[in-house]
Every structure is written in structure tokens, then in C-alpha cells.
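In the laboratory, one determines a bound structure by crystallizing the protein with its ligand and collecting diffraction data. In a computational setting the workflow is compressed into a single prediction: the sequence and the ligand go in, and a structural description comes out. We illustrate the idea with DLL.
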Amino acid sequence: MEKRYFQPEAETMPLDELQALQSEKLVKQVRYVYDNVPYYRNLMDEKGVKPEDIHGIEDLHKLPFLKKDDLREAYPYGLLATDIRNCVRIHSTSGTTGKRVVAFYTQHDIDLWEDCCARALAAAGATKEDVCQVCYGYGLFTGGSGLHGGSHRLGSLTLPMSSGNTDRQIQFMMDLNSTVLCCTPSYAAYIGETLKEKGYRPEDNKLKFGIFGAEPWTEEMRRDIEQSLGIKAYDIYGLTELSGPGVAFECEEQRGMHINEDHFIAEIINPETGEVLPIGEKGELVFTSLDKEAFPLLRYRTRDICILSREKCSCGRTFIRMTKPLGRSDDMMIIRGVNVFPSQIETVLLNSGYSPNYQIIVDRVNNTDTFDINVEMREEDFSDIPGGITNKEKALQSAMKTMLGINPKIHLVAPKSIARSEGKAVRVIDKRKRLGITI
Ligand code: DLL
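The predicted complex, in C-alpha cell form:
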């Protein structure tokens, strides 16, 4: 098979050269952050580490961690490392709390990010001959812009569809002969189902493969999507804080995702103790950016649990591989591609005058996440006229939509009807676990 690289020199660099490059870039990035980000300088000072102490990747462990809470605390500009006038773009994480996490980009940051996405597309087989239909959401979410930029860079014909309006997606896919599909795996499955309902067979479309990520999905789901669309399905990983999609991507081997190690150093730590674990052990993934100008992050804790592997890959890439995220070390859920924290739901309930007795039930039915919240009413509200309950459910649903960005089904239930627990309250029942989905 022909070799599918976008930047072969970087992607297949011998390991010793790659690590030397990482060391050189790390020393510069640490100095840059120390000089330009007072928030992180304070963290380093508190730990007693100076830029002079960092001589290469072997010294990485000396640096303090950065957590999502730090990003919230420093919101919006506290971690910005350059003059805002040098920035050309802002993106934000999908979940909304009182304070969202925002990430800034200079043109240089966008260029590197788009390279990473182009590498992912090329690894799956995309070339300038392809028609790439991007149906990740465009906007603050990084999925749409990221794959769009990657497709441009590769010279493919880019169809910037954004998500939703499935009938139109299908019409364009058929009329314009899309060969590559980029979206969340659940949306890919939905498109597959809709095609079938409309009487199309998998061989009726021109799609060859798809680049699916942003949420957990299983090997069963991969097979399902591959069959219903008649394509090969590739995984892609990333997070807003580090740029977006393309931090890691699958090659034809499909045994884990290669991390773009010339731009990011990956570590695995014990989430309880922060101790660095040897490659091959399961733990929390931590990233250090190496080239970023606007929003460089050193030792950023992703909360994603996974395993790294240095095993040689037949595709020829030397970049380390990560498994799919196997879970989270916090209580974040990903529902229909949106990051949701139980604490956000609690905030809405308390602000709307409800008790904090609630239960979140998440499931996946026909490849789509269902999201229900049972909320106990207070005694004094319970005698309310029945029609009033529906109105209250609607009002609460709308408040949840504003906070979370997605619509849960709200069920107001009788006082004391949600089982009390003697230990930790069981707030989340995630039935997707039966499908092997662990986030
Ligand atoms: O989801 C970026 C992205 C867009 C990745 C499009 C891939 C494709 P956030 O909204 O910041 O960014 O969410 C990041 O999503 O920490 C993981 O928990 C989860 N996640 C991302 N990719 C995958 C994947 C985008 N392939 C969070 N499998 C991350 C499982 C994933 N989980």
C-alpha cells in the first residue's frame, strides 16, 4: 500500500531525533511560558522550579501540573502568552459552566493545528482528489474548523456542512460525490440509518472513509458505521485546550492513535498521586505543548484515562500511540458530543428553586444518546395543579439547555421518590456502559 503521510519527515522521524527535537522545543517553550504567563510562573515559583532547571524531556516531571480548574480560574486571559492583537481566533470547550474554558490561537497556532488535522486525513487516505464533507459543528466547537482546515491544507474539496439537517447532508453527499465524511461517530451512525430509511444501499454513495471522534465509541459501533455507510472508519482525538481535533489520529493499522509528538509531549500519571507511570500502564493522559504561541500549556491534565504504546507501527510513523480514552478521572460525561458535568445540573436546579435530589439517566438508543433528568419536587410544590408540572418541566428544560447547550428530558417526580443512598449519592446512571462506552 502507498504510504499515506502529510509531513513524512516529521511523522517518520527516527525516535532519537524526535526526542532531541522535543527536548530543544521544551526548553524554549518553558522559558517562553515563564516569561509571558504570570499564572504559570507563580506555579513554577511555588514548586521552586526555574526555566534553567529544564534541560530536556528528562526534566519534564519537575514542572507543576495545570488543571482544568486553573484554566477556569485564569479565565479569560490569565493563560494567554502573547498580546491579544497577535491572536486571530478563539474557540471554547463544548460544556458551559459559569466560566467556560476559552483557547486562543495565533495564525502560527492555527497553521500547526491544521497540519495535524491534515496528517489525520492523509493517514486515512485522503488526497487532493477527495471531496471532504465536514459535518462536525462549526463555531466555538473545534471539530468543524479543525477538519475543515486540515482538508484545505491537503487540497481536498471541502464541503463545510456543519452538523444537523440530515436530509441536506445526504442530498449534498449524493449530488457532490463526497468521498470523506468527518463528524462524530454517533452522527455518522445516524446518517447511515437515515440513508437506509431512504432506500439507499451502502454502495450507492461514493464515501471511502470517515474521520470520527470527539466522543467515546466502541469497536462494535465502528463496524456498524462501516457497514451502514460502506466505508472504513478512523478515530481522531483532541481537546480544545490543546488546539482541537488532531492531537492524535489513527493510521491504517488502527491499533491506537498516533500522538503528534513533534508538537505535544504525552505522559501518563497516576490520577490520585500525580506520579509518572511507565509507558504501557493505564493512567491519566497529560500533555505539554511544544510550539504554541497564544495558549501554551505545560503538563496539562486531560482527565482522560488511557494507555500509551511505543511498539513499532507498520505504517512507519514513530509517534507514540494512545488507546481510545478508557474513562475519565473526573465526573464529566459526554452526551451527544457535549461535555456535561453533574455540578452544572445541580447549579441549574438550585438556581431554579429545586432541591438537589436528582438523578441523571443516560443511554444510547439507535446510536443516539438519550439524556433524562429526574428531579424531585418539594412537598409544597407537589400539590400544584397537574398542568403546572408540564410548564415547570419545560421551564427547567430551557434553563438546562442554556447551561449545558443540549436539551435533557426533565421529569419532575414526587418528593422522596429518588432512592437515598447511605454513602455517596448515585447521581448518574449511565446505561451506555452495557455497550462498552465508559465516558
Ligand atoms: O472534542 C475536539 C475534537 C473534535 C476531537 C473533533 C475529535 C474530533 P472538546 O470538546 O474540548 O474537544 O472535548 C475533549 O472529548 O478530553 C475526550 O474526553 C473526548 N474525546 C475527544 N476525542 C475523543 C475520541 C473535542 N476520539 C474531550 N474518543 C477529550 C473518545 C474523545 N473521547
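The domain at 8-329 is CATH 3.40.50.12780 (Rossmann fold). Keep in mind that any predicted model is a hypothesis to be tested, not a measurement.
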